[in-house]
Design goal:
This protein is α/β, with parallel strands linked by helices. It contains 7 helices and 5 strands, in the order αβαβαβααβαβα. Helix 2 crosses helix 3. The longest helix is centred in the first third of the chain and has 20 residues. The chain is globular.
Length: about 200
Amino acid sequence: KRQDVIEQRMHAIDACAAFGAANLVVHTGLRGLEEAAGDGEVARCIESLHAPAARAKDKGVDLALENGTDPGVSVGLLTEVLGRLDAESVGLCLDVGHSNLYSNPHADVREARHHLRSVHLHDNEGTDDLHLLPGRGTVDFRDVIGFLRRSQLIGIVTMEVGVDEGTDPDSLESLCAHAGRVAGVIDSFARGLVMAAGEGRAP
């Protein structure tokens, strides 16, 4: 099974290179056993990343390990994986919504800053992975986006949101209105008009 995962990653890297994608976000399969970071599961994770990391470097693609794919898969744990892997083609994907569930976005964005390749933006209320539009949950996006802008961090930012409650997926008009709200949030971030937690609905 592990070899199948490795092969899938290799094929995905080749596809990224073929389509000109700069990075590939990777779920490590770790279950967040930070106390076992010196052996076992983490060691197998690192072993499974060696060949994909080499292929990624050869193809000019970055791998970005995503935090929060399991409650214990913290930025700290993934940073340790990066240190032990020691591959320049591998960095982090900071999922801000996952940080809000299992950790702290304020701390995570600062800990991840030197390894960031990608950022996933979405909101929640700290209890469920709702993938809300920024501004509709409790993430302090003024802090997160402000820090990213001040630090001049360069990477791929993905608005990873679902359809709002009340949006009719069978109605083109309703879907277009939702897309307009997403575009409004993206524009506000681009212009630096970022929201603090609790500022209400996004534009």
